[in-house]
Amino acid sequence: PGVMSQAAAKEIPQEQGEGGSRRSGWGLLVTAGVGGTLVALYAVATPFVTPALRKVCLPFVPATAAQIQNVLKMLENRSGSLVDIGSGDGRIVIAAAKKGFQAVGYELNPWLVWYSRYRAWRDGVHQNTKFYISDLWKVSFSHYTNVVVFGVPQMMPQLEKKLEDELECNARIIACRFPFPCWIPDHTTGEGIDTVWAYDLKRSRGCVTKSLEITPETES
Asked: Where is it chiefly localized (predicted)?
């Protein structure tokens, strides 16, 4: 009996050791899974969060259905190319493309740009839309005749000067949520956060649309 009790006593710690190893293994798997999930969430969330940490905060706030309709109202009887500065998930660009515009969006957030391209493809307007990953301060908007801006008050004075320097007199700038500080809007629609202001440069800066000089033909 003494020998049997000693053998049993030796087996008990061994069984407990095996159970502890299994629990330790599961613990490592759970830790690895949680760690991997956190890393993935960080990779996805970082591009959305970092814009709010810049000197000029330009967070992603989707345009409302009313804002989109107000923008389209300001584009009635307009033609030419269109650009959305800070295009977010592409809903303004896509809505304009459905109205026949060749529409382009500039957005610094790569995740939103890729999602915008997918939405444009899903809605069947990918041939009339383009989305670029770019900083708006490093892009010239000189060849656009319709400009849509979703900005914040801190950036509007500098952006106002940039657009005035770059755009032709036939351009129309449509500001959403916040107006430009110096320009007087030619048209306003909506109310509250859905308010949209439209500025025609030929009136805002008192310029005359450039005309082509015609050189008279000389007889040969």
From this structure: mitochondrion
Q: Which helix (H) or strand (E) holds 23?
A: helix 2-49
Write out pLDDT tens, residues 165-175: 999 999 999 99
How far is Cα 201 from Cα 53, in angstroms, rounded to an integer?
Answer: 33
Q: How far from 95 is each of 41, 92, 104, 145, 218, CA to CA, in Å?
A: 30, 5, 11, 17, 50
Sign (positive or negative) of CA dihedral 91, 92, 98, 101: negative
Closest to 67 in 3D by CA, of 91, 47, 34: 91
Q: Are 58 and 86 in contact (CB under 8 A)?
A: yes
pTM of the model: 0.68
The per-residue pLDDT for 144 is 96
User: Is the domain 65-201 a CATH 3.90.226.10 member?
Assistant: no
Q: How far apart are CA 213 and CA 188, in angstroms?
A: 36
**In one letter, which amino acid is 73?**
K
Question: If you write DSSP's letter for every residue of 128-193 in order, what string do you get?
Answer: GEEEEE--GGG---TT-SEEEEE--TTTHHHHHHHHHHHS-TT-EEEEESS--SSPPPSEEE--GG
Query: What string of H, E and C letters represents the secondary structure of 27-73?
Result: HHHHHHHHHHHHHHHHHHHHHHHHHHHCCCCCCCCCCCHHHHHHHHH
Are the C-beta atoms of 105 and 148 separated by less than 8 Å? Answer: no
- The DSSP element (H or E) to which 84 belongs, if any, is strand 82-85
Tens digits of residue pLDDT in 98-114: 999 999 999 999 999 99
Per-residue pLDDT band for 53 (boundaries 50, 70, 90) equals very low
